[in-house]
Amino acid sequence: MPTVSQFFGIIIRMYLRGEHNPPHFHAMYGDDEALIDIGNVDVLEGHLPRRALALVLEWAEEHRDALLENWELCRRKQLPNVIPPLE
Q1: Which site in 36, 70, 75, 86 is 20 to 30 Å from 62, CA atoms measured?
Q2: For residue 87, what pLDDT is reported?
Q3: Are 36 and 42 spatial neighbours (Cβ–Cβ below 8 Å)?
Q4: Distance CA 49, CA 32 (A)
Q5: Which long-range CB contacts under 8 A does 66-75 form with residues at least 24 apart?
Q6: Could you read off the pLDDT of 12-22 as tens digits, one per residue?
């Protein structure tokens, strides 16, 4: 699973295979992981600590178009592009 971005100890990844809809990404922080819906920027499943989740959602809002482009790349089994971290 390629890393798309990394910031404040949070790792954002996307699978390179024909994933199930809706378009989403995986956010990891320590031992916690959440699947985040790209369309409505909401947690599909899993859990992140409150502060980490707030950072992930802020980042996802800023980069929604790039995340959707990466989703399409991954569906075609192509490497996703790196997306700038939250600063």
Answers
A1: 75
A2: 86
A3: yes
A4: 8
A5: 67/4, 67/23, 67/25, 67/38, 68/23, 68/38, 70/4, 70/14, 70/25, 71/14, 71/19, 71/23, 71/24, 71/25, 71/38, 74/14, 74/15, 74/16, 74/17, 74/19, 75/18, 75/19
A6: 999 887 567 89
